[in-house]
Structures are given as structure tokens and as C-alpha cells.
Amino acid sequence: MIAGSYIFINAGNDHLNVAQVVCAMEHLMNSYRDIDFLVPEGVQRPEDIKKTFLYCDDIKIGDDLTDYLNARVPPEFQSTGIIHLYNTLMSKHYQCDVMQLFKAGIIRVLVCTDTTGMGCNILDIDIVVQWKLPKNISLWVQRAGR
Predict the structure, then answer these.
(1) For the whole model, what pTM was predicted?
(2) DSSP character for 36?
(3) How far, rounded to the nearest angstrom, does the alpha carbon of residue 98 sit from its chain's CA centroid?
(4) Most buried by CB count within 10 Å: which residue of 66, 91, 93, 97?
(5) 23 φ, ψ to 5°?
């Protein structure tokens, strides 16, 4: 994020380590370049990618976002699965396995829909991103609290 390219809102959050930031898109929406910061240039190891929930409201767009971010991962890490898709089309077994890998820090970015929206409190999340506006404000508040 470029300094001054966002609006900082402090709405009385009781958690000093949590800030809600709204950024205007700078690139075409279907280019997905506005999420490049999630897999920064010069990644040397998977841990250089912050542990992230990337929410979107459409399963197809989630698939596209996952492909886009995986293409940004250095070739030596692409087969490790550090970027994963997580939605209602996945089996419960898959969802359980992926969530365990995410909690363990092996998966660094989880591209997800409402499947992870409720009852998923993971304390060491670095970033929560909402791709485009959610269907309603209560979804945004719920997701931001991850």
C-alpha cells in the first residue's frame, strides 16, 4: 500500500492491533493487481507471505484470485500449496484439512467465501482482505473480526 492512498478509520476498536482500512482500486478489477501486496516481490520463504484471509462473494472469482496469487508465488514454493481456495463446494474433509494447515501456518493465504465467515476465530491472522464490497455491512464486520 502506498502511503496516503488509503483512508484510516478508527471507529473505537478495542483491539489496538486491528485497523480497518478501505482502499480504492487502482487497477482494472479483473486484473487483480490490487492484491499484489499479499504476495510481495522478493519472497524468500513462505513465511514472508503474511497469514491472510482473502474474502470474496463469488466462488468463480475466488478461484481466479487463487490462480492469480499462486502465479505470483516463487516457482520453488508453488507446489507447496501456500495459497488455497476454501468454499462451500469443497468437501468437509478438505475444509477440515485446509483449515488445520492454515492454522499451522503452512497455508499462508486462504481465499474464501462465507464458509469461513462464522465461528472461525484464529488469533494469528495478519491481514483480512475483502475483495470488492460484500453483500451487506454485517458480512464485512464479521469478516474483519477474524
Answers:
(1) 0.80
(2) G
(3) 14
(4) 66
(5) -115, 140
Which positions ≥6 away from 120 have C-beta within 8 Å? 99, 146
What is the structure's pLDDT at 102? 94
> Which tens digit of pLDDT belongs to each residue from 53-75?
999 888 999 999 999 999 999 99
- In terms of Cα–Cα distance, which of 97, 101, 119, 92 is closest to 51? 101
* C-alpha cell of residue 14: 478495542
φ and ψ at residue 127, rounded to 5 degrees: -140, 140
CA atoms within 13 A on the CB side of 135: 7
For the CA atoms of 55, 62, 125, 1, what is the dihedral angle to 10 degrees? -80
pLDDT higher than 90, residue 23: no
